[in-house]
Amino acid sequence: MYTSQITIGSQTNAIKASKILKSSNISCEVIKTDKDRTKGCIFGVRVITENYNTAISILRDRGFNI
Amino acid sequence: LKNYYFDNAATSYPKPASVYNAVHEAMIIAGGNPGRSAHELSKKASLLIYETRELLCEFFDCDHTERIIFTPSATFALNTAIHSLIGSGGTFLISDIEHNATLRPIIKKAKSENAEVHVFKTYENSEQTLDSFKSSIPEKCRGVIINAASNVNGRALPIYEIGKVCKQFGVPYIIDASQLAGHEQISFEKASCDFLCCAAHKGLFAPMGCGFMILNDSSVSCEPLIYGGNGINSLSFDMGSEAPERFEAGTPPVALIAGLKAGVEFINKVGISAIKESAMQQKKYLENRICECEKYKVYSSEGSVPVISISHKLKNCERVCEELSVRGFSARGGLHCAPLAHRTIGTEDIGTVRISSGYFNTKQDIDRLIDALRAI
Fold first, then answer.
1. How far apart are the C-alpha atoms of B207 and B256, rounded to whole Å?
2. Tell me: the pLDDT tens digits for A12-24?
3. Fewer Cβ neighbours under 10 Å: the N or C end of chain B?
4. Residues B74-88: pLDDT tens digits?
5. Do residue B242 and residue A30 have CB atoms under 8 angstroms apart?
């Protein structure tokens, strides 16, 4: 099973994102992402790749700037 | 010697058993540094803090979890809020029941920015207080800071009505809810304030060392008071734009926040209206019983915060507190870090003995206190 990372920012917002996704029945976990090393430490969520687009769409609808 | 604790306005004691357990448990099961790592202990700590933000959001009727900012104290929160009122000249407006947590930073700020601090008079009657407030708003008002309830005699101010006026005039509005929280339901949305600052260790039953503030749309982008590591964007030299991390430099007190969570859960379980009713009954009973003792003068209010002040006709307040302490009673004498409030009730020169009961006090405790006061 392939997984994808969604970069969020702070761990607080990553937890918030994970709660929103879980309430939409999208399983995910909070991770410290290595996607953007230019900024330093950053948090995100890991989702199953097939849910990636749906997850992005849900989070954008809830005001996440991703 | 059993201790009868009547100093709940300083910090509530005892705490509910669940608070002690939560603090202990957090140190074991959530012992990692939150917001820094992705290992289990760190994530558990972060989740615990996040859930506390959610709980506070619901408790204070606020929509944005990330706008609950943990601070080491209400004083720290108030300093942050006051620090955010940028500019120079003009006037700050405060009430005549402010604590030094507000008074000292605002005086310091006004001095350094060539501004003035005006004090409006408060009354037992909320409408009179509101009229006094309205007629005191200066032309170039840079901010209004008010104490929601006095730590000297429990006087409560009309925070919602004052908020409406501030909104109408476009004036930044800061509330110190340290004494009121846990005794009255407070709605952040209805208060229309920019900052709601609060101690966690009084009516909310948390351990000492923890406070918080709630921010609105405009204050969420204000300058933090301190800078340092916050777990994100480590290559950047500034604090970033994301709340709450923008305002929370350094490692947060996870165990204390766990205690706050348990404290608020306790209030939700008992019901804030039941707590309020119990506090009102205690306050009334205490006031009536002390009024029976001719050697004491009582300074009280009709508000729901169970705080009253008394003064002995012959002995000074510190002496009375010392004699109470010898008999096993905890009460606080002096000016209670609130010289303005004492000036307001006419006790600036003598101070008072403050009796602040709490949820765990009983009628029998009050009866014993009265016996001790009579004996002094």
1. 6
2. 999 999 999 999 9
3. N
4. 999 999 999 999 999
5. no
